[in-house]
Amino acid sequence: MLQRSLFRASRQAARPLSRPQSAFTPIQGTRAAAAIRRYSETPTPAAKVAEAPEEKASPEAPKEEASQLQEQLDKKDKIIVDLKDKYLRSVADFRNLQERTKREVQAAKDFAIQRFARDLVESVDNLDRALGTVPTEKLTPENQDLINLHDGLKMTDSILETTLKKHGLERFDPSVESEKFNPNTHEAVFQAPQEGKEDGTVFHTQQKGFLLNGRILRAAKVGVVKNS
User: Fold this and answer.
1) Which domains are assigned to the chain?
2) I want to staple 221 with a disulfide (CB 3.0 to 4.6 A). Which of 72, 75, 112, 207 is the partner?
3) How far is CA 197 from CA 11, 180, 181, in A?
4) Which stretch of DSSP H or E encloses residue 178?
5) Per residue in 135-148, pLDDT tens?
6) What is the C-alpha to C-alpha distance for residues 51 and 45, in angstroms, rounded to an integer?
7) d(CA 63, CA 75)
8) Residue 224's beta-bridge partner residues?
9) Residue 5: in which H helix or E strand, if any?
10) How far apart are CA 118 and CA 124, in angstroms?
11) Interatomic CA distance for residues 167 and 117, integer angstroms
C-alpha cells in the first residue's frame, strides 16, 4: 500500500502544469481595440487650435501702439534737450572758469611787486625832494659842482622813472594840470582860497601819487581850492 501511494504521488508530481488562462478574453481585446481607435480619431488640442479660424486684429491696436511709441519718443526728446542744456551750461561754466583763472593769474603777475613797489616809492620821494631843495638861482656857472650834482640827480631820477614804468609803476602829479579833486586818487591835506580858480581844483601837490598797472598804489596828497 505504501508503495502504491508513493507511485501515485510521483506520477502527479511528474505531470506538467496546465497553462494558465489568459487574463484577457477575445471580447475584452475587441473592446480595447475599439477604444484605441476612438482615441486616435479624437482631435488633439493643438489640432483644434490649428483648425480654429484666425481672429481678426482690432483696428485700435495700431493706434495704441503708435501712441505708446510717440510717448516714448517725446520722453527721449525731453531727455536729449535736458542733456544738451546741461552740456551747454557746463561748457559756459568751464569757459568762465578759464577767463576768471586767466584774469587772476594776470593780476597776480601785475601786482606781484606791489609790496616791493610800496617800499621803493619812498626812495623815489627822497630823490625828488633832493632835487626840489636846490633853488634855480643857485644853478649858475659859478656853482659848477652844484650844477653837476643836480644834473646827476635829475638823470638818475629820469632813468629810475623810466625803469619803473616798464614794470607798470607810474608817478603822477595832479597839480600840474590843475585836476579836479578825485577822492579815489587824491588825498586832500588842506584847503585854501585861490583867486581865478574853481572850487575843488587841486592847486598844490604835497606828495606825488603812484599807479601800479592802472591801480592806485598810493594816493597823491594835495591842497584843494576853496573860495566860498
Assistant:
1) 114-225 (2.30.22.10)
2) 207
3) 173, 11, 13
4) none
5) 888 888 888 988 99
6) 10
7) 18
8) 191, 202
9) helix 2-14
10) 10
11) 10
